[in-house]
Structures are given as C-alpha cells and as structure tokens.
Specification:
Layout lengths: L1 H33 L3 H4 L17 H8 L3 H32 L3 H13 L8 H11 L8 H20 L4 H9 L4 H12 L1 H17 L2 H6 L8 H5 L11 H33 L4
Helix pairs in contact: 1-13, 3-13, 4-5, 4-7, 4-10, 5-7, 7-10, 7-13, 8-9, 10-13
Amino acid sequence: MEKRKSIKSKILFVVLLVISLAWIYPIFMIFINALKEDRSITTSTVFQLPTSETFAGLSNFVDALTSKGFAQAFGYSLLITVTSVALILICCSMCAWYITRVNSIISKILYFLFVFSMVVPFQMLMFTLASTADKLGLNTPFNICIIYLGFGAGLAVFMFCGFMKSIPLEIEEAAMIDGCNPIQTFFLIVLPILKPTLISVGILETMWLWNDYLLPYLVLDRKKYMTIPILVQYFQGSYGKVEMGPMMACILMTVLPIIIVYLVCQKYIIKGVIAGAVKG
C-alpha cells in the first residue's frame, strides 16, 4: 500500500514538474530574447541562447525605458492598479459585511447579483461600457478605478462573504456594547479580522488589473494615456517594423514585478481562500 502511494506521488510530481516547466518556458524565452539584437529574434535563432554575435547587452532595456514612454505608462498602470485595488477592498468588504449581517431579501438579491456578475463575459458589454465611460468622463487613469470597482466586485464580495460568515457575531456585539458605532465596529474590529482575505483578494485583483489590456484600450484616450500592456504594441519603428528587442525587454520588466509579488504572497492567497471556505 505504501509502495503504491509512493509511486502515485512520484507520478504526480513528474506531471506537476512538466506543467511548471510549460508555464516557465515562455518567460524564459522572453528573457533570452530580451538580451539579443533585434535581427536575431526574427530568424531561426529565436529559440537559441544569446551568443557573442547576437548578444545586445542592456541596450534593449535602455531603449524600452527611454524611447517609448515606459516610465509614464508604468506610472499610469501603477496609479490605476493601486486606486482600483484600494477601492475594491474597502467598498466590497463593507458591502459583504452588510450582506452577511443584514438578513433580508435585499441583501440576498445583492449577493446573487454579485455572484452572477462573475459569469457575464466582458465582450457582451464592452462597447456599451466604452460609450458610457466617455459620457460620464470615466476615461482617464484617475477615475477608471470606478469601472474596475464594478468588474472586480463580484469575486471580492464572494470571497469576503465566505470569510465574514466565520466571524462570530458576539465580537461585534461586544464592540457595540462598548460604545462603537457601526463604522467604528467595521474599521476597528471587522477589518483587522479580515486581513487574510484582504491580502488574498488584493493580490488576485492586482494581478488582473496590472495585466489588463482590453478595458484600458477601449476606455482610455490612447493619445494621452497608455498603460504598460497597451504600450507593448507600440514598439514599432519606421514602416511599421516591430522592434522585437525593446518589446521583449518591456514585457520582461512588466512581468517580473507581478511574478515577484505573487511568489512572495502566494501563501496568503491560499490562506485567504481556505478561510473564506470555512462557512458559506
């Protein structure tokens, strides 16, 4: 019996190792091509390691940083990500608290609407959304977070509600007896308890927002504002020639920060998901 379990675990290890290598391989290809000269990326040497003839050093990274507005696009992506995640965490946690503590038909309908929003494809409403955003003036990096709040609320409310149901009601009642009003109870008592789910939701939303291409492309004025994913497609030289070297360097500099954040914080994601599945 133990021998059979050992064989199964070894097979599972090999399968997971192959899957991991399949996920890592594209990032490795981006890395080695970011170090090559442009002409070497578009030929049969694209899958080969850099040589003395094809090695470009850090020139591609310098071009990506200086010639295409990388710093400005990075700043806009950072602004959109930080403001949107902060808005999602605060508003959705408060909404989940209301849904779980107020047992009414309205709260139940709200919960099911949030859950239903996760299964609605973005393509069904993207053109209407773009038109509405223009009319309401939500087409800048400074207020697009309101749109992201609507799209990110489904997953956030679902996870927060799952965890909120595991918090004993007696803790909040004790805070009320001590003189806390509902706002103080939430921010001083409930919010600190929500830390595992706050971190996990924040990381998941950050990964989505940082890498999102379609929504900013449809909503933002690309002549004034470009996020990092949009900037990648503008690495074109004369006559529409794509500058593959700087583009690979830009992709690498964009992907690495979010990978590092995920690797550092992945344990919190698991804790938050498990905590949210205690009850519900």
